[in-house]
Write a structure and sequence with these properties.
Elements lengths: L5 E3 L2 E3 L1 H4 L5 H5 L2 E9 L2 E2 L2 H14 L10 H8 L10 E9 L12 E9 L10 E13 L13 H12 L4 E6 L4 E4 L3 E6 L2 E4 L10 H9 L6 E4 L12 E6 L3 E8 L2 E2 L3 H13 L2
Parallel strand pairs: 7-8, 7-14, 11-12
Antiparallel strand pairs: 1-2, 3-4, 3-5, 5-6, 8-9, 10-11, 10-13, 13-14, 14-15
Amino acid sequence: MNSSFTIYNQTILNEAESEAFNRRSHLYGDGLFETLRVHQGKICFWESHYFRLMSSMRILRLEIPLNWSPDDLEKEILSFKPEPQIDYRVRFSVWREGGLGYTPNTNSIDWSINFSELDDKGYSSPVKKQKLALFQEHKKSKGLLSNLKLSESILYILAAKFASEQHTDDAIILSQDNHVLETSRGNIFLLKGNELITPSLEDGALRGVMREQILKYAKDANLTSKEEKVNPFDLLKADEIWITNAITGIVSVSDYRKSSYGCLKGDEMQVILNSKCE
């Protein structure tokens, strides 16, 4: 077998040392991930995370291990024995085995779990607030892959970088036809009166776990909900704007361009989400 080596920052690495640099996740972004919140020793909304993971792996033609039942995989993730009084961010990453070459020689997987402690216990209540910008330099295409949390995340990185340069906290990502899809940090909801509006999966929005929960439990806050195309100008007419993800739950937008927004219903919905995660 031919030997190989890697030069890393002017240091020549041997074959064993080079292994981390030759993973397909590193070379091609050939994988996906789930970001989970562990609260009181339990994974919040585990069932939704699990079924999204399984669906995404099938779409990417990744081999699902036979012992990855919902219960067994949950036990594997929680094997680090979380302290009940501490909340954790967990990143569960899955990627295809193999090295160089676009054509895979296997669908077998490697995986890893990263844990980090969070400052808050439960989703912040009242909700945190942030300023929002509009990222237009690059757009997101629609299709089945656009709904997945892929390892390749350069669009989100560039949007987050743009937000920082604009001295805001987050930035809106647009579709190719200039409709609002999400932000660099999560899905987006507009509240008009008692109606919640969020971009549809068919238009390219991320299939967010927290998005799913809010659509499911909106009625508990006496809200109706629907999915439809959202124009950037629609944001200026909203009463509230929420950014949602599995770690923060809901973050309320305080300012977008020259408009300011409330967060009364956002606070109410966050309380409901915390109750569902107990």
